[in-house]
Every structure is written in structure tokens, then in C-alpha cells.
């Protein structure tokens, strides 16, 4: 098959000595980022993205994606040992993971979490391997109306499927669109919203924004909470690993179900956090030991970890094939591709085959290397958490400042980073989601260009978005996603009304 041949070519790219070195460094940095609360995959990739500007795009994306895999693995360590979710999606892992650790089964819990994560990610990579070329070939039929329809579907999916309040999601997205509009008009070349300031000619760089929103914002929030690390010691030996692996096959149905949920939530912009909670809830409902969930059940660790890693990995599928990120981390990686001069989409698979298939091959290798590393180095990462946060926080802030300054070698970027940090802090306090804002900041210009090109083609007729079955069906699905919260509320009211009527006894 063509995909297998392309994958073999990708392995020849990924297995070069320098790419293997970048892979190992990325995994180690990622686990460290995942272990430290206040960071996370998206934050770590955003902070370290400036370090890749002097690297080749292939090596850069391999290192950044491995940072992501490592962060996914590292988030489970804090959740299980310290009851502190290193990532938002790892909250569900604490429900049964930490009780297992307190009961002296920390090694079993960690082994189950790491192995389940590996399985979920592996299946998601296989899906990407065989599905990505098909999606890319199909999307070659896309013109400006189709691309705008897909982008509209992405925005509407965040509203309809996001875990936050729809109004807050829309507000965050509108702010992202406003920020994306600052600078040069991509179609006419005229200045917009610069207010006579020369520094705003280039607009708000998305990298500065994400470093501030995620990195500084999380640190400010964590400092306010006065985080203290208290946890249990853990050590994993081969006997514990083997005994746990012998138990895991009995949860194959849970793992398969969680993988399907994760892949779906990753491809659609649901994200890893809803996937982990959904899979945990479904596993609890269908398990014969469902009433024991929350007391230290291994199945309660397998379900969220498998789903989260499947979602995090499969989120790269729409990013590579359509240029539509399925998660905040994918949005940051999308911005990196644009900085390196690569345009995500169907032509990427034709013009940059070494890049695409080198990345896909590194997903296989990165998850294998990541599994080995976390199984053998758990005590080291646990020891890091005993360093006072008052020491860790300034180091993270300095790294963020260096990363922001190196983008354009301008102090203004450091100031903007701090401003965005305050905005990120306020968003967290007010429970406004950051992902829609980042998405709009990254895709705002692209969506505007596609829309205006469509209007030029149709001479101002909006009906172009319903001119054929493909674009019409995508736009129809987008409208369904946009109004999905309203539809679900109406259906709930109808059900409750029918139940009330059925519950009334007839008058004799």
C-alpha cells in the first residue's frame, strides 16, 4: 500500500541520529512540563517554540510533538502520586489513581496509566496513518467557500461541543478575531487598528499571546492558590509492570471504547478533557464494578488515560490535512508550521512528504520511547515535585520572557506577554475558555481571507456557501453545532415535560 511505503520513508527520516536526539530531548522536556502543575502540553510547546526557529521544520515538529507526548505522560504522575492534575484532562485520572497510590498500589496505577496512554495514542496514530492521506486527497476538491465552511465548522464546534458556557466561548472567540484583525489587511494591504503605532504593524504575534495566556496566566493562578506538593513515594520494578500487564487485557473493551471516544473528540474539536471525563463516566456506567469507582479501580485509570491520549494524538489529523487544529496544542503547532513557511492542508502531503511522514513516523517512535522513559524514571520526576514552587515559578517566568523576546528581539513583546498573562489569569478566574481565543487568533486571518475570496467569486452573494452539496452540508453541520446547546436544552425540556405528564394520575 502507498501509505505503508510512505510510512517507511518517514521512518528513514525520523531515525536519523539528530532527529532521534531531538525526540529524546522532547520527551524528557515534555515529561518535566507535564509533571509541573502550571504548565502543560500547550504551554510547554508555546514556551519552547522559539528554540526551534534555527532548526529544520522536520526536526522542529518532531521535537515539539514529542514534548506534547511527554507532557501527556507526565500529567498522570502528578495526578496519581500527588492528587494534583498536571493537565486538565488528568483530573479524571485522580478519581481512582490517587486512591490506588494511597493504598500502596502506586506502581500498578502508574503502569496501567502509562500503558493505557500508549495504547490509545498508538491506535490514534494508526488512524492518522491511513485516514490522513484520504482526507488530504478529498480536501483537494476544496476552494475558498469549502475552506471557509470547514473553518466555520471548527469555530461552531467549539461552541457546541466545548465544555464551557457557549456565550463565554463566543466572547473569547470574538476577542481572538479582534486581535487577529490588528495590522495589515491580508487582502488589500491596508492598515487596521494600529492606532498610529509602528510596533502594531505586524499585529499581535500568536506566539507572544500563547506564552502569556498559558504560561504566565497559569503561573499567576498557581501562585494565588499557594500550591504545595504532598504525595506518596513510588517505584516501578519489572515485577509490578508484568503483573499489571497481565491484568490489563481484561479491560480491552473499556480501552477500545475509550479509544473510539478519544479519536472522535480529537478529530472534532472536543479535546482531551471532555474525552477523559466522558470515557470515565461511560466506563463507570457499564462496568460490573461501577459502584466501586472512586475507591481505587484500575479500570477507572484505564478509561480516561486511553481516551485522553487518543484525543490528543488524533487532534493532529485535521491540523495536518485541513489546517484546522483540534486542540490548543495543535493550534500552537499550526502557528509553528506557518512560522516555518509551511501551509497545512492537502498540498502539504504532496509538496512536503518527508515532513509529513517523518512526523507520523516520529509519533510511533515517540510514544514507544516515552513509555520506556516514564516507566524507568518515575522516582526522579516525583522528586522534582518536592522542590518548593517558589523556586520553580521564577524559573518558568524567565524562560517565558526569553522565549517572547527571541521572537522579534523586542522588549515590547515581553510587555505584551505580561499583558496577555494577566488576560489569561482573568479568563481562568472568570471561567472563560482560552482555546477558542487562541483558535480565532491563529485562524482569524485565514477564515477572513477565505470568506472575502468567496465573496469576490460570487460577487457578494452569500448563497455561494450553499451552492453545492459539499459546502452546503459542511455549513449545515456548522449551524447544527452552533445551535446544539439550544437544541439539547429544548430536548431536555420536552423530555421533562413528557415525564411530568406521564407521572400525573387521572382524576376519578
Which helices and strands occur, and which strands form pairs?
Layout: H1 2-14, H2 17-35, H3 41-48, H4 57-82, H5 91-102, H6 106-139, H7 144-161, H8 166-180, E1 183-184, E2 191-192, H9 206-225, H10 238-247, H11 252-267, H12 272-286, H13 299-314, H14 316-322, H15 328-339, H16 348-351, H17 353-384, H18 389-408, H19 411-429, H20 435-458, H21 469-482, H22 484-503
Antiparallel strand pairs: 1-2
Helix pairs in contact: 1-17, 2-4, 2-17, 3-4, 3-9, 3-15, 4-5, 4-6, 4-15, 4-17, 5-6, 5-13, 6-10, 6-11, 6-13, 6-14, 6-17, 7-8, 7-20, 7-21, 8-20, 9-18, 9-19, 11-12, 11-13, 12-13, 15-20, 18-19
Which features does this protein show?
508 residues, mainly alpha, 22 helices, 2 strands, 1% strand
Shape: globular
First-to-last CA distance? 74 Å
The parts where pLDDT drops under 50 for at least 5 residues are none
> Main sheet, how many strands, which sense, barrel?
2 strands, antiparallel
**What is the residue-mean pLDDT, rounded to a whole number?**
77
Number of strands: 2
Strand content: under 5%
The helix/strand class is mainly alpha
Taken in chain order, the helices and strands follow as HHHHHHHHEEHHHHHHHHHHHHHH
Spatial strand order of the main sheet: 1-2
Amino acid at each position: 500500500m502507498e501509505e505503508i511505503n510512505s510510512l517507511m520513508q518517514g521512518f528513514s527520516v525520523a531515525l536519523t541520529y539528530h532527529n532521534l536526539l531531538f525526540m529524546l530531548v522532547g520527551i524528557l522536556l515534555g515529561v518535566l512540563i507535564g509533571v509541573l502543575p502550571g504548565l502543560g502540553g500547550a504551554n510547554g510547546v508555546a514556551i519552547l517554540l522559539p528554540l526551534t526557529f534555527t532548526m529544520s521544520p522536520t526536526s522542529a515538529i518532531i521535537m515539539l510533538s514529542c514534548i506534547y507526548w511527554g507532557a501527556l505522560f507526565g500529567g498522570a504522575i502528578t495526578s496519581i502520586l500527588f492528587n494534583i492534575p498536571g493537565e486538565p484532562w488528568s483530573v479524571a485520572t485522580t478519581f481512582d489513581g490517587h486512591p490506588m497510590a494511597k493504598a500502596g498500589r502506586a506502581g500498578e496505577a502508574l503502569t496501567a496509566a502509562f500503558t493505557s496512554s500508549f495504547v490509545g495514542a498508538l491506535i490514534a496514530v494508526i488512524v492518522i496513518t491511513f485516514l490522513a492521506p484520504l482526507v488530504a486527497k478529498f480536501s483537494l476538491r476544496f476552494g475558498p467557500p469549502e475552506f471557509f465552511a470547514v473553518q466555520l465548522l471548527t469555530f461552531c464546534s467549539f461552541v457546541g461541543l466545548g465544555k464551557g458556557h457557549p456565550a463565554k466561548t463566543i466572547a473569547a472567540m470574538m476577542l481572538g478575531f479582534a486581535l487577529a484583525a490588528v495590522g495589515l489587511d491580508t487582502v488589500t494591504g491596508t492598515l487596521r487598528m494600529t492606532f498610529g503605532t509602528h510596533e502594531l504593524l505586524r499585529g499581535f504575534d500568536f506566539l507572544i499571546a500563547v506564552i502569556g495566556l498559558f504560561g504566565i496566566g497559569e503561573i499567576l493562578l498557581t501562585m494565588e492558590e499557594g500550591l504545595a506538593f504532598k504525595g506518596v513515594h513510588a517505584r516501578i520494578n519489572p515485577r509490578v509492570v508484568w503483573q499489571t500487564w497481565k491484568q490489563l487485557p481484561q479491560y480491552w473493551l473499556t480501552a477500545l471504547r475509550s479509544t473510539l471516544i478519544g479519536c472522535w473528540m480529537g478529530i472534532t474539536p472536543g479535546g482531551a478533557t471532555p474525552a477523559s471525563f466522558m470515557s470515565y463516566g461511560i466506563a463507570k456506567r457499564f462496568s460490573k464494578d461501577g459502584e466501586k469507582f472512586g475507591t481505587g479501580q484500575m479500570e477507572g485509570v484505564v478509561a480516561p488515560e486511553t481516551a485522553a491520549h487518543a484525543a490528543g494524538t488524533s487532534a493532529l489529523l485535521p491540523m495536518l490535512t485541513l489546517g484546522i487544529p483540534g486542540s490548543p496544542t495543535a493550534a500552537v503547532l499550526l502557528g509553528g508550521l506557518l512560522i516555518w513557511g509551511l501551509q497545512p492542508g492537502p498540498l502539504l502531503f504532496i509538496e512536503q512528504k518527508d515532513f509529513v511522514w517523518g512526523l507520523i513516523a516520529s509519533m510511533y517512535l515517540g510514544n514507544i520511547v516515552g513509555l520506556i522513559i516514564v516507566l524507568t524514571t518515575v522516582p526522579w520526576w516525583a522528586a522534582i515535585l518536592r522542590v518548593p514552587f517558589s523556586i520553580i515559578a521564577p524559573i518558568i517566568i524567565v524562560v517565558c520572557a526569553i522565549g517572547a523576546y527571541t521572537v522579534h528581539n523586542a522588549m515590547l513583546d515581553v510587555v505584551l506577554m505580561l499583558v496577555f498573562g494577566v488576560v489569561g489569569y482573568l479568563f481562568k478566574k472568570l471561567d472563560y475558555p482560552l482555546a477558542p481565543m487562541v483558535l480565532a487568533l491563529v485562524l482569524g486571518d485565514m477564515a477572513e481571507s477565505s470568506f472575502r475570496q468567496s465573496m469576490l467569486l460570487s460577487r457578494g452573494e452569500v448563497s455561494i456557501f450553499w451552492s453545492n452539496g459539499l459546502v452546503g452540508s459542511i455549513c449545515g453541520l456548522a449551524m447544527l453545532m452552533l445551535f446544539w446547546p439550544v437544541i439539547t436544552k429544548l430536548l431536555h425540556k420536552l423530555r421533562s415535560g413528557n415525564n411530568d405528564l406521564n407521572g400525573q394520575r387521572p382524576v376519578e
